[in-house]
TrEMBL record:
This is Acyltransferase 3 domain-containing protein. It comes from Thiothrix litoralis. The chain crosses the membrane at residues 12-32, 44-64, 70-88, 100-116, 122-139. Keywords: Membrane, Transmembrane, Transmembrane helix.
Length: 154
């Protein structure tokens, strides 16, 4: 049943964290049982190949990875690749940290693109990175300087 333009209730809820909450649950389980998966992390690079295949194909159901829909198999491969990148690769010391900005801004930007019907993932990624850098240098870093105690120097 369409309730707004050509959107159903699910279509609208899919743009919110309500439908995506189970993914946070998976993250909590992984964090809680990190000691179990830690020994397998060096092989997690193997999750990259299925992700690239799924991105460039249009398989249905649990393999789906188009638009704002994410199949379970795609999600599990994605999680594996993220864990490998975060914990299985060499750390690169940087003088900036755009991770929080990317976390905060990715969802509104991607959802804006989806609602507007813009199918330009590269432009969305570049916009997310640009806004994340802007957020770091003009909001986050100045705000961190106001702290009296820091875990690490800026």
């Amino acid at each position: 049943m369409k309730i707004y333009r050509d959107k159903s209730i699910y279509d609208i809820l899919a743009l919110t964290p309500i439908v995506w909450g189970w993914m946070f649950g998976v993250g909590i389980i992984i964090a809680k049982h990190y000691d179990i998966i830690e020994k397998f992390i060096p092989k997690f690079y193997l999750f990259l190949l299925p992700i690239f295949i799924l991105i460039f194909t249009d398989l249905p159901g649990i393999f789906h990875s188009k638009g704002n829909e994410l199949g379970l198999f795609y999600f599990l491969c994605y999680i594996g690749a993220i864990i490998w990148i975060a914990f299985g690769t060499k750390k690169i010391p940087l003088r900036f940290d755009i991770s929080y900005g990317a976390y905060i801004w990715h969802m509104p930007i991607i959802n804006l693109f989806l609602v507007m019907g813009w199918h330009e993932p590269l432009f969305a990624l570049l916009l997310i990175i640009a806004i994340s850098f802007t957020s770091w240098f003009f909001i986050e870093k100045p705000a961190l300087r106001l702290k009296s105690v820091s875990l690490k120097p800026l």
